[in-house]
Amino acid sequence: MNVKTSLLAAAFGQILVGAWLSAVSSPALSQQKPVTTLDRVVAVVNTQVITSSQLTNRVEMITRQMAGRSSQLPPPDVLEKQVLERLIIERVQDQKAKELGIRVDDAQLDRAIANIAKENRLSPEGLRTRVEAQGDKYESFLEQVRQEIVRVRLREREVDAKVQVSDADIDAYLVGHDATAAKPFEYLVAQILLRVPETASKQEIDLQQQRGEDLLRQLHSGADFEALRKKYPDSSSGDMGWRRADELPPLFATAVTPLQPGQHSALLRSPAGFHILRLIDKRGGATPASTPIMQTKVRHILIRPSATLTEAEVERRVADIKARLDAGKDDFAALARQYSADGSAASGGDLGWIYPGDTVPEFERAMNALEPGQVSDPVVTPFGVHLIQVLERRQDVASPERQRQAARQELRVRRIEMATESWLAELRDEAYVEYRLNTN
């Protein structure tokens, strides 16, 4: 597994890292080219600059990462513009995080690196070797991880914390989701987005609309959707992933549901700009949603670093507790009540019945690998270091309470995604950006 492409998933239990175009900070190349000209500024973002070497390094890194993959990169000039836009968005986020005092100290960074190493089944030393073998300096890799954590925390503060899902929202959602009915269709959608800033003049809006109409004419004449999409730096990088109609913005859902795979929508207008959607594929519509779900009854002991407990001391304490459990000298519940830093300590570490997706990926993978009665080796997650014991497993249909919880989570994820897109657009529009890419 490529270490970089699993960076976010390993560090935060999330998912989904696309191409490095949307995930990392400026990396260093494995070999520095001889300097023949002075570095020049290609963009100014508020009080910071983006230099030609930073842009070139990122472009070359993406080219290396995409080598041998089935998907093709856009033409060099288009790729350069797309990468520059991504660097601008990153700078704006970094500046906002600094303004708000969001930072990641060395101890937090070390824990994230430990997660990445464990996710890739490597030791920290092995991780370093792997990163350097992929052509990047380890110090640059560390800085990439630090900055990505900062950006995630910024988003959590500015977006996630403000997204609310009410009981009325859940009631409305469940009306159209009968647990005994067939699963709804899911749609794989790609888009071309011609972005329109909030401050755009009528002339600018008309120009983007004309471009959209011209794109539609080309599509009707048989032009390749993907080739056209890559011509526009504002366009999303790839498809949106599999979504049900209710997981798409209403404007998109209305346009996509009548389409057959391979067809595209008319020109759509949203607050973000003008869109053309293409339905890549469609699935579902038959499998019962009431299929039994595997549940796991589990308990754990959590030890986390603190001002009075260093990471080395955490490791020693967890190793000592594990040895005592392996020797059969102590009861798991008693040790959880004595040592665990989790709210479940009072109940002997009991987390009750866990559904898939209830815990962070590192915890769930370790839990799923255990037999009933078995205690895990130390498991590192963003919360600290765990010892996990599976007590029992069963298959059950989700209870009404569980269905409401799942509905709340789905609605929240969808709203966070939409709010994040709007928030990033606002940050970008508020920033002073001066392009110097084509100047000498």
How would you describe this protein?
This protein is α+β, with helices and mostly antiparallel strands and 440 residues long. The chain folds into three domains: 158 residues, Porin chaperone SurA, peptide-binding domain (Triger factor/SurA peptide-binding fold, Orthogonal Bundle); 106 residues, Chitinase A, domain 3; 104 residues, Chitinase A, domain 3. The strands form three sheets. A four-stranded antiparallel sheet has the order 4-3-6-5. Strand 1 and strand 2 form a beta hairpin. The N terminus is likely disordered.
List the helices and strands and how they pair.
Elements: H1 7-12, E1 41-45, E2 48-51, H2 52-66, H3 76-99, H4 106-119, H5 124-133, H6 138-158, H7 167-175, E3 186-195, H8 202-220, H9 225-229, E4 242-244, H10 250-256, E5 268-270, E6 273-283, E7 293-303, H11 311-326, H12 332-339, E8 350-354, H13 361-368, E9 379-381, E10 384-396, H14 400-430, E11 433-435
Antiparallel strand pairs: 1-2, 1-11, 3-4, 3-6, 5-6, 7-8, 7-10, 9-10
Helix pairs in contact: 2-3, 3-6, 7-14
